[in-house]
Amino acid sequence: xxxxxxxxxxxxxxxxxxxxxxxxxxxxxxxxxxxxxxxxxxxxxxxxxxxxxxxxxxxxxxxxxxxxxxxxxxxxxxxxxxxxxxxxxxxxxxxxxxxxxxxxxxxxxxxxxxxxxxxxxxxxxxxxxxxxxxxxxxxxxxxxxxxxxxxxxxxxxxxxxxxxxxxxxxxxxxxxxxxxxxxxxxxxxxxxxxxxxxxxxxxxxxxxxxxxxxxxxxxxxxxxxxxxxxxxxxxxxxxxxxxxxxxxxxxxxxxxxxxxxxxxxxxxxxxxxxxxxxxxxxxxx
Length: 285
Prior knowledge:
This protein is an alpha+beta fold. About 15% of the residues lie in helices and about 40% in strands. It folds into two domains: about 5-115 and about 265-280, Rossmann fold (3-Layer(aba) Sandwich), CATH 3.40.50; about 125-260, Tumour Suppressor Smad4 (Sandwich). The longest helix has 16 residues, at about 10-25. The mean pLDDT is about 90.
């Protein structure tokens, strides 16, 4: 018997759609595991070192009903299981949840019949060390962000690539993003749009003091290390916007490609360029 997981946003419309999908799947003799996404507080310490339960490996796929935030939570649940995931947009924007809700059941018919394709996306692994002890360890699909808090002074972010000193970004922050995350916060900060299946890492400073600081595209073999200056006392580090912590000059942040990937189920007849044109409203008056 096939078994399909459903991750649903804590919202009435999404919950109703999840019930409808569950009924439809069970009528086809498919077992269903439904998980409601209730986001934890962003500073939850128990989530900073990855110890959340992992999705059962016998799931043939996971369907996400919600927005991009729900999708990112589902990725944290999938971890390294390799379970393919479909994002169905019931949120506001939806770059990750690209499938429209009205096409859910035709797409699910293909999935049930194993007539679907999935695209592999890289993830980033981030680790924070303090006094030689690991205080945070996360895997992200979109980005790791170093950001000053409200009313804080400009941050001084010493950045190294493969142990070679690159520069000290004097900026409001720094985004380390995957190609998938290139259309998230990095894009808002002036970063490039990167085709999501490419294997690169993007560095994008946030409001840099030096106008010559621009986004830098690195190979996915690079390891990025970040240190703060002693004067930087109000700086926050976030992982995919899901969890985060305060960091200081005592901390060392290391970011590199994760050893595993995520497999995103593609919507038939919908190309990545269609998604770009729709979400960014290109070509319209």
